[in-house]
TrEMBL record:
This is Response regulator transcription factor. Residues 3-119 form the Response regulatory domain. The modification 4-aspartylphosphate is found at residue 54. It comes from the Bacteria. Residues 150-215 form the HTH luxR-type domain. It comes from Streptomyces roseolus. InterPro entries: CheY-like_superfamily, NreC/VraR/RcsB-like_REC, Sig_transdc_resp-reg_C-effctor, Sig_transdc_resp-reg_receiver, Tscrpt_reg_LuxR_C, WalR-like. Transmembrane segments: none annotated. Keywords: DNA-binding, Phosphoprotein, Transcription, Transcription regulation.
Length: 220
């Protein structure tokens, strides 16, 4: 059973999400929050698998709430729900530790699939969309940073893992990596898993951000 917390300042939006989620045999809603402060408190109390997190809420917004939830070491994963597919705040949400984002007008089956994917440890944002998001808001990245070879998050990676992290940052899917680097897709999945474990990245979205932060990948 996947447990979900809904954080949104609009009561009708929360009601709609609850009705959809609880129509599924494998999901249950453990709480609702109308602002970020309440979301952080309820995550600490209920330890849900997934938080559906609105960005714009009164008081503590969804970005800061996400940051605090992740910083607290919670196993809970955050799925940002945004109004526009390139909401400028979505980028900040991903950097704060969210595992992906969906738009509010997504189809019900897309939302359900997104919750299941995040609960399973996958990223919801497609690689190409992640690349577009990061390229659009690349000015948010620091102008200067530690050169990639010296970054402590990369020191444990093999040359092959560093190569695969680079192309993940460029938006390649596992299938594309397998085809272009002449590897079995199962081998690529193994490499990706090791990259996540060694770098401490929570999922593929965080791996893409890491590739940008360490300058393995630069905006096109």
């Amino acid at each position: 059973m996947t447990t979900v917390l809904i954080a949104d300042d609009q009561p009708m939006q929360r009601f709609g999400f609850r009705m959809l989620l609880e129509s599924q045999d494998d999901m249950t809603v453990v709480g609702e929050a109308a602002n970020g402060t309440e979301a952080v408190r309820q995550v600490a109390a209920h330890h849900p698998d997934v938080v559906l997190m609105d960005i714009r809420m009164p008081g503590l917004d969804g970005i800061e709430a996400t940051r605090r939830i992740i910083a607290a070491g919670a196993r809970t994963r955050v799925l940002i729900i945004t109004t526009f597919d390139l909401d400028e705040y979505a980028y900040d949400g991903l950097r704060a530790g969210a595992s992906g984002f969906l738009v509010k007008d997504a189809q019900p089956e897309e939302l359900l699939a997104g919750v299941r994917a995040v609960a399973a440890g996958d990223a919801v944002v497609a690689p190409s969309l992640t690349r577009r998001l990061l390229d659009t808001y690349i000015h948010h990245l620091p102008a200067a940073g530690t050169p990639a070879p010296e970054d402590p998050r990369l020191t444990a990676l093999t040359e092959r893992e560093r190569e695969i992290l680079t192309v993940i940052g460029q938006g390649w899917t596992n299938t594309e990596i397998a085809e272009r680097l002449h590897l079995a897709e199962s081998t690529v999945k193994t490499h990706v898993g090791r990259i996540l474990a060694k770098t401490g990245a929570r999922d593929r979205v965080q791996a893409v951000i890491l590739a940008y932060d360490t300058h393995l990948v630069k905006p096109a």
